[in-house]
Amino acid sequence: MISRRHKIYLALFCAFIFFILYRPNTSTQMSSKLSLPVVIVGSGLAGLSAGNQLVSKYKIPIVLLEKASTLGGNSIKASSGINGAVTSTQKALNVEDSTDLFYQDTVKSALGLGIPALQEKLSNESSSAVTWLQQEFDLKLDLLAQLGGHSRPRTHRSSGKLPPGFEIVKALSDALKSISEENPDMVTIYNNSKVVDLDIEKGKVQAVQYVDENGESKVIKTNHIVFCSGGFGYSTEMLEKYAPQLRHLPTTNGAQTTGDGQKILEKLGGDLIDMTQVQVHPTGFIDPANRSSNWKFLAAEALRGLGGILLNPSTGRRFVNELDTRDKVTAAIQEDCPQDENRAYLVMSESVYAEYKNNMDFYLFKKLIKKTTVSDFAQELPISEDDLSKELETYSTAKEDTFGRSLRVNTFESGISKDSTIYVGEITPVVHFTMGGVRINENAEVIGKNGEALAEGLYAAGEVSGGVHGGNRLGGSSLLECVVFGRTAANSIMSKL
Ligand SMILES: Cc1cc2nc3c(=O)[nH]c(=O)nc-3n(C[C@H](O)[C@H](O)[C@H](O)COP(=O)(O)OP(=O)(O)OC[C@H]3O[C@@H](n4cnc5c(N)ncnc54)[C@H](O)[C@@H]3O)c2cc1C
Ligand SMILES: *[C@@H]1O[C@H](CO)[C@@H](O)[C@H](O)[C@H]1NC(C)=O
Ligand SMILES: *[C@@H]1O[C@H](CO)[C@@H](O)[C@H](O)[C@H]1NC(C)=O
Ligand SMILES: *[C@@H]1O[C@H](CO)[C@@H](O)[C@H](O)[C@H]1NC(C)=O
């Protein structure tokens, strides 16, 4: 006979053994296998995604090196949103989509360039990327827009005041900062710290070299490095080399966008692909207060996706399907509009204003768009106010669109006349995104010229990498690429420990 007290002891003993064998805490296992932190280069969405996945999911410590004084790179400027196919937001809004349809849109847009396996992975994992942002960081991402080249509305943003890039970057960087405060061994963030070289020995990453805020050269020992250093759209030197025909165009990119990662990785033997593929976004705002500035504020593609149209200044008429892919809309502006000016008008209805109010208020505040009337705006065009009203009405009501635009939402009010309110900005094509970069595989490993992984422990994600977008990137797919491949790099590091 076992006494009641013995039964309790036995139960406690079994529970203790069970706990020893199956304790869920992986962090102690981790630190024994990984003595050095993972180094992440760049604090845009790719770096922040890799960092959060490593730290929160796998308890792997990181050092984040950022050369600018502030975090977020170009990611923080994103204004249209992030793509996802077959998401809960789409379901809630009754949008039927499929990963295959997204894949086909991506391939069609890529014009035969890029790496199909990466494009497939991007589409396949788009829904889980959006879910990750919603669940781990409490982001709503409850609204959709249909951008150029997409056959469904699948570009997500949140209702509320913050633009998508800012909202997402803030949530992910705040998460890392708060872990860093509680547990400095887990997350170290150095800003004003520019990575200049890597040390690779015996086929394996050994260290990274950077210049710190005081201009001093420093070394961090590490066996894992994830390059998330962004594109090269601001570098006249690199544009001159890869796309000399574009070097005279203004850009939307921040001054830090100089292709450091591409240069460092190429020098080490990395395979750069599609480097000549530079995306010119059709709509950068011309600031009336500084028309010739080389830096332009982006007129988000959502402005067209949610209803904006383009008018040719020399005819006062539409000239293109505004929701064709970016390369085609840009070509139309360059060919049809006055070539010495390279500009067009972006015209929006009162209901575009209502649907995109926070952004529109910001553009109004910056004086990049103005609230005006049909008759006032007609003064700037070679056509009469009646002809302008007719042009806007035809667009809004025609059964078949003259330019084959299939999505016409938030059109101009019925019975539009000379007194109707419209919103108008001036736009010009701008260097926006560099599709090319260092070749990666589906594990986000950097690939060398011989087609093999360049070094053990070397990864890249985001705009620094090439192959995801081929010859033309779809709007919303860059933020997506950052989340998908940033997390993939983290998963790969974990799986090889
Ligand atoms: C105005 C604008 C609007 C956009 N809107 C959208 C949108 O709505 N949807 C979408 O999908 N995409 C959009 N894009 C594109 C997208 O924002 C970026 O291409 C994408 O976020 C790139 O992310 P990333 O993490 O790869 O690089 P980035 O966000 O550019 O971050 C790279 C970081 O690396 C740092 N860095 C570079 N070199 C070094 C070095 N040597 N050492 C240390 N740090 C270094 C940089 O300072 C930078 O902070 C937009 C781009 C712009 C410019
Ligand atoms: C970065 O550097 C500046 C000083 O240049 C400092 O004020 C700022 O708080 C630093 N940290 C971050 C995370 O931005
Ligand atoms: C994408 O998903 C399809 C269908 O589930 C699958 O057959 C394919 O292997 C996936 N591709 C990648 C690259 O993950
Ligand atoms: C115009 O823009 C350029 C480049 O961004 C800037 O250097 C210059 O100060 C601006 N000029 C005015 C008048 O704002």
UniProtKB/TrEMBL annotation:
Spans through the membrane: 6-22
Keyword field: FAD, Flavoprotein, Membrane, Oxidoreductase, Transmembrane, Transmembrane helix
Lineage, opening ranks: Eukaryota, Fungi, Dikarya, Ascomycota, Saccharomycotina
Names of required cofactors: FAD
EC number: 1.3.1.6
Protein name: Fumarate reductase
Protein's organism: Lachancea fermentati
Family membership noted in the UniProt record: Belongs to the FAD-dependent oxidoreductase 2 family. FRD/SDH subfamily.
Cofactor remark: Binds 1 FAD per monomer.
Coiled-coil regions listed: none
Top enzyme category: oxidoreductase
GO molecular function, one term: FMN binding
Function comment: Irreversibly catalyzes the reduction of fumarate to succinate.
Alphabetized Pfam families for the sequence: FAD_binding_2
Catalytic activity, reaction form: succinate + NAD(+) = fumarate + NADH + H(+)
SUPFAM superfamilies: FAD/NAD(P)-binding domain (SSF51905), Succinate dehydrogenase/fumarate reductase flavoprotein, catalytic domain (SSF56425)
The FAD-dependent oxidoreductase 2 FAD-binding domain, residue ranges: 38-479
